[in-house]
Batch of 2 targets.
Target 1
Amino acid sequence: MVMFLDEPAVRAALRWDHLIAEMEVALTKLSQGRVIQPVRNTLTIEEGKRYLAVMPAVADDAMGLKAVSFYPGNAGTGLPTHLAMILLFNPETGEPLAVMDGRLITEMRTAAVSAAVTRHLSSPDSRVLAILGSGVQATAHLEALSKVRHFDEVRVWSRTREHAERFAREHKARSMDAESAVRGADVIVTATNSLEPILKGAWLKPGAHVNAVGSPRPTWRELDDDAMANVLVVDSREAALKESGDVILSKATIHAEAGEIFDRSKPARAGETTVFKSLGLAIEDVAAARLVYEATRK
């Protein structure tokens, strides 16, 4: 029988340490050409408000696809901006194995990828984390990044001050303006749906690391040209050059894919200021879904 897993079942099966390690493996396979995966097919229903995307991927040990709705207009309504379902198949036989809720997988795998990259690119002595954005990805990144670095101070900014203050209360962080949050921070996360840059390169201290995970459209931006001029790592070159406004509009040079950093085919450039532009890939969803399926079977 095909297994059905709702969000509570997915939550019960996923663990950060296992997920972070699995994301390293999945992205390494991608960069080594061991994954079949097109760039996501996104339908624009209403520009800026409603999108529907389909994301298939096949690896040696996992095959499946995610159907995901991206509704930025849901922000502030109580409904998530991202909702999804994942179909998992046996790659050897084509047999359907599971249908599972994909909202939490999307949330956690995004942060887990950032954590894996941060472990390779940030200073081991990183102590200050700045988060621009106060939604679901802000919380997930705080949890995931805390698995790879020990932060003595967490700073948060949001366009809506009340949201930042609430995040600060719930997570023992400090709410402040964006520039103050970023200046002196060792690791920075941008997790917004901004159309214009919210982070300036002039604010970054030498050697800082940025995880830019928001604004996943070719005309949207979170980082200015100065920030993008630093050492740039992406999850997928093909996806970044088609989907990322930060990469496309800045004409930034891509140093490496994350998988090339993980397998050491490209240098991590330790000590330099680094930017990781994450768009989220189907293989991340499918690999995470396989983890959920196997853990649930056990």
Target 2
Amino acid sequence: MAMIGVYVTVPIACFRKGLAREYLETEPIPPPSTCYGFLLALVGETDRRRHCGVRLTPVLLGKPHKSVVLRTVWRVKSRPLGSAQNTRPDYQQILTGVELVIWMDSADENNPPPHLEARVASSLDPNQRGRLKRFGGLSLGESTHLVDQVRLFPGDPNRNGSVFLLQSNGPLTLPVWVDHVGSSGTRFVTGELVEKPLLPPPFDRLPRIEQDPS
């Protein structure tokens, strides 16, 4: 199946920087690993290794408004886990009015079909939605940052967006795989945001979702 795009809007989101601690900064776009998790949730896939090998990248449309909120965050310092000693107030950057296109292509995926883009297309087909089995709210980033719109996107040569593309000396370093137990298994790629028409980007510059370093 050829590369496909998915249009997504999120009223409120935070794509937290991995090393942010006291002040919870946000990346300007969701990392590839975050986009991958969102797509797995969309199709109801619970095995996050199921579509390793897929290439995908986000494109930011417009410029979301950035602001700062004071919120309660959890930091596990003592037992029991629900202890009040594990909560503290921290400042967090949030983005409002996030509008994205996520492009994906499974040409590199080694797992047998159906590949991720075929499952996404099926899940967004009005005639197939009754067969979709998934659970929970659909969010991008934190579980409370619920998605407003999601639909297939055919491309638009008359509109531009900022697409994340691989670049060895690029200014952005984003995860393509997150190790949720510690951090030694987290994998990163380096890239840049490039202003381009909303058409499928070059396949070889799309980040690849993988556990092992490339």
